[in-house]
Amino acid sequence: MTTRTMGTGARLAVVVPSVVLAIAVGLVAATVGPTLPARVATHFDADGTPNGWGSPWTTFWIAAAVVVVAVVLAVSALRLRDRRTAATLVLVVNALAAPLAVVWIAVALTNTTGDPTMPWWWLAVVLGAMLAVTVPPVTALVRSAGPVPAYDVEPLAVGPDARVAWRARIGSGWFAALGVVSVLVGVWATWVTAQASTGTAVLTGALLVLAGLAVMALARVECTVDRRGLRLTSTWTRIPIMRVPLDRIESCGWEQVSPGQWGGWGYRISGRGVAYVVRSGPGLVARLRGGGARMVTVADAERGAAALGALLAARGSS
């Protein structure tokens, strides 16, 4: 995967937004922090009146840690070959760092007055900061990304009466770990919040548990190519995740997958189509009649495409 050379302006667009965010948090902490009391208003009603109190430094250290990660990631993104994936990571981290940093700054500045009321316009500042720290770096990284190589494959040479099938198993240990953690946190949230509100406990815990189970179902899948078409099935639940009949497929091939090109990792739905992405690397691509595609990242993508091509050729000759 080739990348285009980034000019000075583009490199600054990637790094400067997170650096400015870090400087702003550091300046407010150094100048306003010493004047803050041990307990400040940390949560506010819709009209801006405080309804929660706590230490100002707990949220500061959380915001500072995420901002530092954003700066490190921005600098690292300049060296990554897969800049589409780098853009996706920068988007997620910067979109999290901006509200954390601005909210802490707002809390700190608001609590320096005698009446710690949060003005409504701070919400506009938060939204503006999110746009300012995400749009420039993501735009610069995507524009500097080279094309993703795509390849056609010669179909397998088989006899007219041969039965063609191909199968591969794909998985991600990260998906499995994330799913387990989500389920455990959901159970823990149910137990903790049940002390205050049964309804909230059931809703919070159930959503986290369901999300964890869904991620675990994607942690190990089986990709099959045969006369029925292309199928992707969870090996744990045996529930089909993707099913593409052979008569819907116009052509096939494989490409060097960039997760950022499909919008990230996992089960992705984008303008290009539907994809199962667990990493960068080879991916089997089925191009559909009428546009769109289905893609599965798998190490043996070239052989899978050759098998699918043989089935398509047999269909065309029948």
From TrEMBL:
Residues 21-65 form the DUF1648 domain. It holds the Pfam family DUF1648. Keywords: Membrane, Transmembrane, Transmembrane helix. It comes from the Bacteria. The chain crosses the membrane at residues 12-32, 60-80, 87-108, 120-142, 173-194, 200-221. The keyword Metal-binding does not apply. This is Membrane protein. It comes from Curtobacterium pusillum.
